[in-house]
Amino acid sequence: RQAFAQILDQDDPGIQPRFSFDSTPAAAPLIGGARPAIAILREQGVNGQVEMAAAFTAAGFRAVDIHMSDILAGRQSLSDYKGMVACGGFSYGDVLGAGEGWAKSILFNARARDDFARVFERSDRFGLGVCNGCQMMSNLHQLIPGSDHWPHFVRNLSQQFEARVSLVEILPSPSILLQGMEGARLPIAVAHGEGQAEFADQSAAALLEQGLASLRYVDNRGEAASLYPANPNGSALGLTGFTTTDGRFTIMMPHPERLFRSFQYTALSPEVTAQWGEYGPWMRLFRNARSWC
User: What is the pLDDT of residue 189?
Assistant: First the structure.
């Protein structure tokens, strides 16, 4: 009913990006120099690692493909990398509660648990979790300083997998990845079945007030999205991205890595994206990571 009501809204302006920052110059001078190594972390069923590696490579990183089996067997250590990113997809075929099975493979393995805990505690390391990786990292909150407020992610209110282009607003927060992007409204790719944020100790409104929510779905008029399909999963106040109190680790449901180049914005008019050059506004997130390093 909500979807049909939206279709009947003749005054809907449609998806219109709004941002005032430049997506490219923040770290451009650094790209010719050293390339910090970043761990592109995946598990069985994850499928977003190639786009993620491409985005971080374009931003000036040396992206290294690391499977969880490398961590569990001790062939790789996350401590050797400046940053880590848990990618999206369908870990364990989503049959074990999406990212929860992935998180438990870490929590119940002493070597992996210690490796992740060391990285989370180091002030010179950063990380990102997207989609399945967002779910996984949210279930590791006991290991991540300053993440006690992170929600648990459950089945979409629509009771189905949602794959669409949505509009999000970037909120003021400590996230090192989103600095200088506050207030922007950007299209972003959504592809998840369990993205509804379920809050335990604090309400969505409290996190918003404290500045610990970093991203929220908005409708095409820029208002916080409470209705489907502008809010694809039913999360309270449309909240879909969160950060730690020091901003080093950020999690989000939607996929910025799928829209870091201008030609990927097929939902927009070519006349709009042609003004951006090669890279779209989400490239700023990856350049922010490089600048922080």
Answer: 97
277 neighbors 248 (Cβ within 8 angstroms): no
Burial of 159 (0-12, 13-18, 19+ CB in 10 A): exposed
Token digits of residue 14: 């449609």
Encoded tokens for 110: 């002493």
pLDDT score for 6: 87
With b meaning 16 or more CB within 10 Å and e meaning fewer, what string describes 50-63? ebbbbbbbbbbbeb
Burial category of 196 from C-beta neighbours within 10 Å (exposed 0-12, middle 13-18, buried 19 and up): buried
Give CA–CA dist 216/254, Å, rounded. 10
CB atoms within 10 A of CB 271: 7
| 3 state DSSP class of 18 | strand
Active site residues: 131, 255, 257
**pTM recorded for the entire structure:** 0.94
For the stretch 202-233, pLDDT in tens is 789 998 999 999 999 999 999 999 999 999 99
